Amino acid sequence: MWYAHNPGRRARQLLGDGTALLWAALWAAMALAVHRLVQPASQPAPHRPRIPLLGSSVDGALRGVAHAGDRIVSAAPATQSPAAAQALAVLGAVALFVIPVGLMLTVWLPRRIRWTRQAAAAQELAGTEDGRELLALRALLRPLDELAATAALLPVAPDETPAPDPDPEPDPDLDLDLDVPPGPGPGSLAKGWREADPVVLDALADAELQRLGLRT
User: Fold this and answer.
1) What is the full DSSP assignment across the chain?
2) For the segment 189-200, what is each residue's pLDDT rounded down to a tens digit?
3) What pTM was estimated for this model as a whole?
């Protein structure tokens, strides 16, 4: 799979993919424009019209690149064939496209592939009991604040909530500073995983699936 089930996560992925495609298309258009502006020495172009759909600053930058290409081509030996000059212009346009797009792909593509592999593996594991235990174990390795949020969603066992005394009488010998037993926390999640508590295992596995933006 390439996109998450969660609408928010899927929207961010679509935005990132669209930005990557737009970046590649922009540099492809710029490379083609530069290739057209850079004329071999045998094909002089005294007048270069303004490139449509581009601002003055971008158009000026492209013209600067084109003039630099002209100087490179004109500096070639006089015996150089027009085909070699044309190949040099093509090489410059390809480099103008490959370098920025390649840098973008080194940042964007590994993250997308890593998420795709993790999501596919998580979906496969979620279909079996042993797989859900592995998902629960992976969820236990998340930061403590995320574990605390997961533990807060656990139902409290009935024996952990004694009924209050309707008419409590103060006990003078009672230590008022006695610590109150804590509620569910990350420690209870680890204990539940060790004891194979199905409620805890399901909560942890669902938390891991939700982290990846998948349906539980």
Assistant:
1) --S-SSHHHHHHHHHHHHHHHHHHHHHHHHHHHHHHH---TTS--S--PPPTTS-HHHHHHHHHHHHHHHHHHHTS-TT--HHHHHHHHHHHHHHHHHHHHHHHHHHHHHHHHHHHHHHHHHHHHTTSHHHHHHHHHHHHTS-HHHHHHHHHTSPPPGGGSPPPPSS----TTS-TTPPPPP-S-HHHHHHHHHTT-HHHHHHHHHHHHHHTT---
2) 888 888 888 888
3) 0.64
